[in-house]
Amino acid sequence: MVSTSWEKEKKAIAYKVMRQKTKVSATLTNGKPKLSISTRAEGDIAEVKVPVDLTDPHVIKKIEKELEKEIKSEIEKAVQQAQKDKSDIFGFGEVVHRTDPKAWKKIEKEWDDRTFAELDVDVKVEALIRRTGLVNNSLHTTLKKEGE
């Protein structure tokens, strides 16, 4: 579950990830590795705490963009914490090793202490909403329209 903000309301929309695929790749420039994490998440709207028109495709796209930002932030925080702890819990060293075994031999000894801790990581996220859980507008949206 991922929660995102909507119109200044924190944790207004809950997103339940049903399928997720992550690809991690490495590139080396002058012996210095750079990692790319690409994640694609598909899921459903699980809960809505604010009035929002889930029948509008533009609103769905806007929610997807907000979810992408939230998921990207969570991934970046996890990577930064692992780098701070100097612990390659994600197996990034193995990705670098598969990409360029000769370069890996040169950086392997200082991987955890120095190279991993200073590693540049690029995160890209694509979030897709498959189902909103509703056939029509949410109760919040209906009540808001009736009050106008």
Describe the structure.
The chain is built from five helices and four strands, in the order βββααααβα. Helix 2 packs across helix 3. The chain has 148 residues and is an alpha+beta fold. The two termini are 33 Å apart. A hairpin with a 2-residue loop joins strand 1 and strand 2 (9-29). The chain has a four-stranded mixed beta sheet.
Helix content: 25-40%
The shape is elongated
Radius of gyration, in angstroms, nearest whole number: 20 Å
Distance between the termini: 33 Å
* DSSP helical segment count: 5
N-to-C SSE series? Answer: EEEHHHHEH
Largest sheet: 4 strands, mixed
Low-confidence stretches: none
Proportion of residues in extended strands: 35-45%
Structural class, from secondary structure content? alpha+beta
Mean pLDDT: 88
Spatial ordering of strands, largest sheet? 1-2-3-4
The strand count comes to 4
Keyword list:
148 residues, alpha+beta
In short:
This protein has 148 residues and is of the alpha+beta class.
Architecture blueprint of SSEs:
Elements: E1 2-6, E2 9-29, E3 32-48, H1 57-84, H2 92-99, H3 101-107, H4 111-115, E4 120-131, H5 139-147
Parallel strand pairs: 3-4
Antiparallel strand pairs: 1-2, 2-3
Helix pairs in contact: 2-3
